[in-house]
Amino acid sequence: MNLYPAIDLKDGKCVRLLKGRMEDATEFNPDPADQARRFAEAGFSRLHLVDLNGAFDGRSTNAAAVSAALAATDAPVQLGGGIRDRAAIDGWLESGVARVILGTMALRNADLVKAACRDHPGRIVVGIDARDGRVAVEGWAEQSDMRAIDLAKAFEDAGVAAIVFTDIDRDGALQGVNASATAALAEAISIPVIASGGVAGIADIQKLKALESTGIEGCIIGRALYDGRIDPAEALKVANGDA
Predict the structure, then answer these.
(1) 167 is catalytic
(2) Active site residue 204
(3) Digit-coded pLDDT (tens) for 85-126
(4) What pTM does this model have?
């Protein structure tokens, strides 16, 4: 199972939000490049970046910070937040981002997402952020009536590399990952699923590892890494099946 340490960017700095609220941001590192290097040195082979300002603004806002992080590590980076048109998709993939994450566009313009999947095989990830099982978009500011599982099924056979499934009410809250909902989604589709939101300790990684056969491909870890609740070496051992 893959682990994705998260670098969430607000005003060029690494922060963590509580349940997606921009006003509840805690700054952890003012230097995204330094944070990317720290995660690589800790042994993580992948990175998850989110342009938080971009998610709300509808366009990439923290481009300089993203570029700095890309330059600081050879680890493959997946990027989400504010990527809302084909030019942005192509631009980021050409600039060195390994995969782009499309959330709002998955709900608003599925045809664009599917076309990008055809043209960029294995490099398009769909982000599904849910509150009470319903999809939220525009930086989680707007709630839709679409069920998360129905949106995921709409992309079966489209060539989506993975689904990042976030339980918004647990994101940044250290309340524990919603393993049951993540596994239910993974079992319902053939697309690999990456769990996000609420990972608070090694026990959460163990839960997801035990459910790996359902189609859970990995998990994103944020606040628990920054505040020391999760030891990187121990987490990697669990994810790799060595503990």
Answers:
(1) no
(2) no
(3) 999 999 999 999 999 999 989 999 999 999 999 999 999 999
(4) 0.93
